[in-house]
Amino acid sequence: IRKGHMVRVHSLRQGAAEAIEVVAHGDPGRSKIVGREIGNISLPEATTIGAIVRGEEVIIAHRHVMIEPEDHVILFVADKRRIAEVEKLFSVEAMFF
């Protein structure tokens, strides 16, 4: 069972790692990622943001890319034990929806 708005999850390395597409919801006041540059986000260990899909545009991730509401964030999680931390990072307050 996944929390947050995970669109796709693909198992990698025979199930030891995952590639995840998650939608960023919220605003800078209610989200740990929206309105922040990738370089300023405390990602869980063994987790990397590879790209951002914004509308029809694919943006290769680098430290100065700002996450905007409704961005689709493509993450690579090399250690599946970190998935709960990733879910928490992308969660917003229950009152948001």
Topology:
Elements: E1 6-12, E2 17-23, E3 47-54, E4 57-60, E5 72-77, H1 83-89
Question: What is the gist of this entry?
Answer:
The chain has 97 residues and is mostly beta strands.
Judged by helices, strands and strand pairing, the structural class is mainly beta
Overall mean pLDDT stands at 83
Number of strands: 5
Strand content: 25-35%
Q: What is the terminal separation in angstroms? A: 19 Å
Largest sheet: 5 strands, antiparallel
Features:
97 residues; single chain; 5-stranded antiparallel sheet; 5 strands; mainly beta; 1 helix; globular
Could you characterize the architecture of this molecule?
The protein is built from one helix and five strands. It has a five-stranded antiparallel β-sheet with strand order 1-2-5-3-4, with no helix packed on it. It has 97 residues and is mainly beta. It is globular and about 35 Å long.
